[in-house]
Design a protein that fits this description.
Elements (H helix, E strand, L loop, with lengths): L9 H19 L15 H6 L1 H7 L3 E13 L2 E8 L2 E8 H4 L1 H10 L5 E10 L5 E12 L15 H6 L1 H7 L1 H23 L3 E2 L5 E2 L11 E4 L4 E5 L5 H9 L4 E9 L11 E10 L3 H20 L3 E4 L2 E4 L6 E3 H9 L8 H11 L8 H13 L6 E4 L11 E2 L2 E5 L1 E6 L2 E8 L4 H16 L10 H9 L4 E7 L1 H6 L20
Parallel strand pairs: 3-5, 6-10, 14-15
Antiparallel strand pairs: 1-2, 1-4, 2-3, 4-5, 7-9, 8-9, 10-11, 11-20, 12-13, 15-18, 16-17, 18-19, 19-20
């Protein structure tokens, strides 16, 4: 039998040893502490819903779940049983069970054990809905107890490390993830209702396209080839599908970025990206706005939200905000005309940290400083070409692009553009990105020359748009880590 972990306190270790002894006693009595089958015939919620008819009919019930409490009163004991649907009180009578079975339950069964019971519904003298147990059977012996709901798992690291206990002790947290499932369900149904074809594109790539981010690197043993985990949901692949004649595609999938963590950022997360042929970014904005409003109404029942003390309403038509004008207004910097030296001086004066001194990174950092003051929702438009290597240039101003970002609560929660389909221009921009990589910029976009070859065969005018689970985190006003079932944790160091 494995020893207790070194980080456990003496009380927890003693409790574990006591339960191990009970486990051995159960085995000695011929009781299987971990049977594979159960006869459960209904969930607890169904019993509660049909309680009156179950009492009148005296229907025999078979329930299963985890014991959450246990209290003895002489020849009568009470316990609370919980399953995924709810909880109910159980009554154990020495007279009904027999002396041996009653004694075994009291002495060998602990809070947190899973049991199966057969019994009938009844109301206590205080009117509490309960089940009188006629038979019980152990389904799973818990060697460690579940912490007390009030005192246990207050430390954030412990909550994330033992997420299964966090969900068990915080039913409202489980509701967040039920809502998150609905969030993606509504998004998927919206895309299909609009005639989009759901696709799956590679998660392992020889070059990472579709975003500017530092990728995770791994090795393909069979090909003896270094590959990367994707940083977008198949942007360059879905554009290939546009060239192939698929005019409406979307994908919901995992994305990986080897970057820092924050309340708004994770290294692994879920995104949705769609691509629409014969459309530009104006049509993309209309479709994205409609999608967000549908999610708000169907998942949350409202269009009004509060995130990070920002209050905003997703209803109506969202205003547009000019990138260059907003940065100039807030920082005094013209991102098209001003020098890198002037940008550095402005960032230093504002007390903003930045990495590197290349123009692209400085411009992006200036905008991110400005972004945090905007409640939204707004469409940020007219991004400089330098920070938009995959977007079409504006016909009347080649230094700017047909790109839009959705800004809510000081952050970007959606990104789209009229996709660049000029192979000559795309090759030129990829060359500029390669120069940034050669100068040490880890977030610059890797050139994909096979993608350029595809463009030479021809790709129709296309709008692409993507958003991720950060939007959901904002709408529930929680850090994105809190809305992740099992966030990555460093292994605990055992002393």
């Amino acid at each position: 039998m494995a020893a207790a972990y070194k980080h456990e306190d003496k009380a927890s270790s003693s409790e574990r040893e006591d339960r191990l002894k009970k486990l051995e006693l159960l085995k000695q009595q011929g009781i299987n502490p971990y049977p594979a089958q159960t006869g459960r015939d209904r969930e607890i919620a169904a019993v509660i819903a049909e309680f009156s008819s179950l009492i009148s009919s005296q229907t025999s019930l078979c329930l299963a779940g985890r014991l959450r409490s246990k209290r003895e009163h002489g020849n009568l004991a009470f316990a609370d049983l919980a399953d995924g649907s709810g909880g109910i009180q159980l009554a154990f009578s020495k007279k009904d069970l027999g002396a041996d079975s009653y004694k075994s339950f009291l002495k060998l069964i602990d809070i947190s054990d899973f049991i199966e019971i057969t019994g009938i519904a009844f109301l206590t003298q205080r009117g509490e809905k309960s089940v009188l147990v006629k038979e019980w059977r152990l389904l799973s012996k818990a060697i460690r107890p579940v912490p007390d709901a009030w005192y246990g798992l207050k430390d954030e690291d412990e909550r994330f490390r033992k997420r299964y206990l966090d969900f068990l002790l915080n039913p409202e947290l489980r509701e967040v993830f039920i809502k998150k499932s609905r969030f993606w369900e509504v998004a998927r149904s919206f895309m299909k209702e609009k005639g989009f074809f759901e696709v799956e594109t590679p998660t392992l790539e020889t070059t990472t396209g579709g975003a500017e981010a530092n990728p995770f690197k791994t090795h393909h043993d069979d090909y003896d080839l270094d590959v990367y985990l994707r940083i977008s949901v198949g942007e360059l692949w879905q554009k290939r599908l546009m060239a192939a004649g698929f005019e409406k595609t979307f994908e919901i999938g995992r994305v990986y970025r080897n970057e820092g963590s924050s309340p708004d950022h994770l290294q692994e997360f879920t995104n949705l990206e769609f691509y629409l042929a014969y459309a530009d970014y104006e049509q993309g904005m209309k479709l994205a706005q409609e999608l967000y409003q549908k999610i708000a109404k169907e998942v949350f029942g409202t269009t009004k939200f509060t995130t990070k003390n920002f209050q905003y309403d997703l209803a109506g038509n969202w205003p547009k905000l000019d990138y260059r004008s907003e940065v100039l207004k807030q920082t005094g910097i013209d991102v098209i005309k001003d020098t890198e030296k002037k940008m550095v001086a402005a960032l230093d004066k504002l007390g903003v940290k930045y990495e590197g001194d290349n123009r692209e990174r400085l411009v992006d950092t200036l905008w991110k400083y400005c972004r945090r003051k905007i409640a939204g929702p707004v469409f940020l438009i007219n991004h400089p070409k330098l920070v938009s290597p995959l977007a079409k240039a504006l016909p009347n101003d080649p230094e700017l692009t047909e790109r839009f970002q959705i800004i809510i609560a000081g952050s970007e929660v959606g990104n789209g553009f009229s996709e660049l389909n000029d192979p000559i221009d795309q090759a030129r921009r990829f060359s500029l990105q390669q120069e940034l990589i050669d100068r040490g910029d880890k977030e610059a976009m890797m050139p994909d020359w096979e993608f350029v070859e595809m463009l030479e065969h021809g790709m129709p005018p296309t709008c692409g748009f993507g958003f991720g689970e950060r939007l959901f985190a904002f709408l529930v006003d929680k850090p994105v880590r809190e809305t992740t079932l099992f966030p990555l944790m460093k292994p605990r160091k055992e002393e």
